Structure formats: structure tokens, C-alpha cells
Amino acid sequence: MSRALLIASTVALALGAALPAAAADESDNWRLSFGFATDYRSKGTSKTLREPYAWISQEWHTDDENYFVSVGSARVQQSFGADIETEVRAGWRPEAAGFSFDLSGLYRYYPDADKTADRDYWEVTADVSRSVGPVAARLRVQYTPDAAGTSHAFVYYEARASYRLTPKWRASAAVGRRDTEDSIDYSAWNVGVDYRVDDNVDLDLRWYDTDADDRGKQYEDALVGAINFTF
What is the pTM of this model? Predict the structure, then answer.
């Protein structure tokens, strides 16, 4: 499937699903999100080799939003031949002593990956965050025992801080480290700003870089712009 067709089909699916979701009652337990960006960055590196992509996700959560399940899809360009990424995630978002937690498990599948590569993997994520006035901080740890493609176990750590400049503008920066069992270990960082247009739309402009620029295009620095929608 061509890249243009992949993007067009994802956009059509997102826009078609957005219409009934936008009309739903605000107390509904469903949340639709989709977006477009000039690059797909995950754990500091590019999953589309610095080319544009589109994504969509549908979430169901309990009335208190503490528990959730979501399904999603995105366009990628992976070294093991995959152009489509799909996922199912389930998790728990409790709060305690002024801290917010986001604990989740993820199953990700690449239906069009090379037959010789691993097409799927499991990943767990643990986030803890705290906000004090305009300042917020988050610590994240992610782990998988066997990644897709030819890689195996890895763990990723990231610290992020943000500052609310105005009710709509926020600046943030993050630094992370990925240690992989049999592939490239690297550090990554990003800095940028986001703007909340309204309750449904936000914009993000961010600079990404790693200390492994010489290891491939996916590790090179890039300025990434994104628009995200939530209904």
C-alpha cells in the first residue's frame, strides 16, 4: 500500500468517526482522538523516517476515568517492512497524595511486517506526575521483554517538566534514555511549546534530538509540528 493511500485512508477514518463522536453527550464514556504530524516520534526517535503521519485512537473509560481501554492505528515506516501500526491498551489512572499515576499495558501489532521479523510485542508503561501551580513534572518508565522486528528487551526512562505560560500556552522539555538488550542504546531529548486552541484541538511544535545521529535517519534531529483533535 502506498504511503499516500495510507495517510488518506487514516484521515478518512478519523473524520468519519469524528462526526458521531463530536455529537455525543459530554458524559459519554467514549473518547475519540486523532491527529497529524510532520514526523512520528516515539521514545525520541522517528517511526516514519522523518516523514508525515496520521493516527487515530478510540478510548472507553469508566465514569471516574480511572480505568480505560483503547484501540488505535498509525502510519509508520519501520526497518522491518511495516507501514501500519495497530495497538490495544488497557490501564489504570489513580491519584494519591497529590500525585497522578498512569499504569498501562500495551499490545502492538504490525500486520504488514516482513515475515522474518517479529510482528508484535507487549509493553508496560508507568507514569507518575505532579503539578504545583503552573509547573508540572512527569517521570516515565517503559519496558518490553521482546520488541518488534529483530530487537529484544528494552527499558526506556524519561523525565519531563512543563510550565504553563498562559491558560493556552505551555512550554515543556524532556530527556530520556533507552537501554536495549541487543541494539542501539541512546539518550534523547526534546523541547517545545503547545497551544490549546479549545477543548477539542491543540497544536504542538517541538525540537527532537538524540546522541546517536550517526546511527540512522530515525535518530537525527528534527523540528516536528503536530495538530491533535479530541472529542
Answer: 0.86
Long-range contacts at 168-176 (CB < 8 A, ≥ 24 apart): 168/195, 168/196, 168/197, 169/193, 169/194, 169/195, 170/194, 170/195, 170/196, 176/43, 176/44, 176/140
C-alpha cell at 150: 529483530
Beta strands in 38-185 (DSSP E): 41-42, 45-46, 53-61, 67-75, 84-92, 95-96, 99-109, 120-132, 135-144, 154-164, 169-180
Per residue in 20-30, pLDDT (tens digit) is: 544 445 558 99
Q: In what helix (H) or strand (E) does residue 4 lie, and over which residues does it extend?
A: helix 3-23
CATH of domain 3-230: 2.40.160.40
Domain regions of the chain by residue span: 3-230
Q: Which three cell numbers stand for residue 6?
A: 495510507
Determine how many CB atoms are found less than 10 A away from the CB of residue 105.
13
Cα separation, 175 vs 159, whole angstroms: 6
Query: Each residue of 144-162: pLDDT tens digit?
Result: 998 887 778 999 999 999 9
Whole-number Å distance between alpha carbons of 110 and 120: 6
